[in-house]
Please model this.
Amino acid sequence: TGDRWLRKSLTGINKFERGDVNEFTIEAVSLGELRKIRVGHNNEGASPGWFCESVTVSGPEVQGGGTLTFLVNRWLADDEDDGALIREVFADSEAALLRTTLYKINIKTGDERNAGTDADVYLCLYGEKGNTGKISLKEAIH
Model:
């Protein structure tokens, strides 16, 4: 369906407050059996960090007219957890329980004049089981 901004909650004015459940209705093309979701935010506002516990999707075409819960249980914050603002969560329990591992990343900047950058650099790793999503490379370990 592409990225959708969740602007109007059916259950409250102040969205995504601690312990709250917010409900939204999205009209989209028929997707068949749902396999994964991607949830994220734009990192704006006075306190943009957010701990998302779960996302539940229901509707007439969701796994035979039922509901499907995606367990997130992660921070979406540049100063918490791994700094990710976007999470991809799979519907099946095997993918949801994928173990994590640490990857050591070495990036060499060229030796050309003005080759360095002050921009925020990011990286995304892709593998046979999916991808990491955009990882911001904010702090180097020397």
Remarks:
- Residues 93-97 have pLDDT under 50 and may be disordered.
- The chain is about 5% helix and 25% strand.
